[in-house]
Amino acid sequence: MSNTSLVIKLGSQTIVNQAGELDFSQLEAIIHQIIELKKKGFNIILVSSGAVATGRQSTKDIRLKFQNIVEERQILASIGQAGLIETYNNILRKNGFIAAQILLTKEDFRSRNHYLNTYNLLHGLIKNPNVLPIVNENDVTSINELMFTDNDELSALIAIQMHVNKLIILTSIEGVYDQNPANEGAQLISTLDLNQKETWPKTLDGKSLYGRGGMSSKLACARKAAHFGIHTYIANARLPNVLQRVLNDEKIGTKILPFKQDKGIKRWLAHTYSDSLPSVFLNDGISRILTKREKAVSLLPVGITSINGTFEKDDLVSIKNEQGKSIGLGVARYDSRSLSAVIGQKDQKIFIHYNKICIFDNPD
User: Comparing C-alpha atoms, which of 351, 326, 314 is closest to residue 113?
Assistant: First the structure.
């Protein structure tokens, strides 16, 4: 995509008031800014939290029963998502625009087919200038292993997937501070260059009141995006005309500079890791070769010692060393049954081609 393509993320705290209720005037202000940018030719995808908060507001006079926290989240989201998107649509329609709702889980990034289908849908939507795609996690159907850490993670994944140039994370504070912003003497960091490790802040604040994220989450997601050439901006959503001012490179918020840019299938691989993935375990020899990354190496059955879980051809698998540490991800060329028959054997077909292996920078 061009430099006019943006992902904008609105957190829960940016769109609710002090009572925890949806702040219509704030939503309207942000949407009007987005409309003005779209009129100037910007392609924009909005990642919006707020479904659970909206559901909680809608049911404050109704006594609901929940068996656990997951069920509470799912029920409130199923009630609140309709009200949230209706609010967005009402504002947009008054100005000749319309909302398109997209609800995603991690499965939509783990599966190559889902990933491409989502890409094609979003690409098709942003080609229509009067449509605003609004993405949120599908809290209604998400189970723990398919939940994003928060919508910060989702916004980074969308930014990476859609090859945008800028990710703008709007929050309830001014940006990134060199220490907890509640501390006396805390200083706002205007620019973070991730190529200079000494600029990385050591002290971070906690999670937000109404959402799941916090500044540490935002920085982690900015770091992910930075690996793909994406500039991330963290700024206060309630600053007047904040979006245009960020794009004008005014000294507001925090600008996070990118690393080098990766391409293609590794863009998908690098950000789909989940503990629920099936795994293959490697002997120490091939593990060392892969993690050194001195040359492109395909994974053959001779280097594999065991399998955990089942998978089909083209599924994503976790690559682990003999000690069980995750060192990367890859796309299987054949299923787990076929691999089981040839584990440890020489002169067998490639299991994962080097073009479809992603080795982590710092294996866990």
Answer: 314
Read off φ and ψ for residue 204, nearest 5 degrees: -125, 155
Name the β-bridge partners of 168.
8, 233
β-strands 326-331, 357-359: how paired?
A: antiparallel
Kindly list the structural domains of the chain, giving each domain's residue range(s) and its CATH number in brackets, ordered by start: 5-267 (3.40.1160.10), 274-359 (2.30.130.10)
Q: Which residue has the tokens 């299923």?
A: 335
* Structure tokens belonging to residue 5: 């393509």
Structure tokens at 39: 């009129």
Report how far residue 9's alpha carbon sits from residue 135's, in angstroms, rounded to the nearest whole number.
9
Identify the CA nearest to 44 among candidates 244, 213, 224.
244
Q: Rounded to an integer, what distance in angstroms lies between the CA atom of residue 356 and that of residue 276?
A: 19
pTM score, whole prediction: 0.73
| Helical (H) or strand (E) element with 83 | helix 69-93
pLDDT in tens, 213-261: 477 778 888 887 887 788 999 999 999 999 999 999 999 999 999 875 5
Count CB-CB contacts under 10 A for residue 154.
Answer: 24
pLDDT in tens, 112-132: 678 788 989 999 999 999 999
Asked whether 150 and 213 are in contact (CB, 8 A), the reply is yes
- Give the separation between CA 133 and CA 155, rounded to whole angstroms: 12
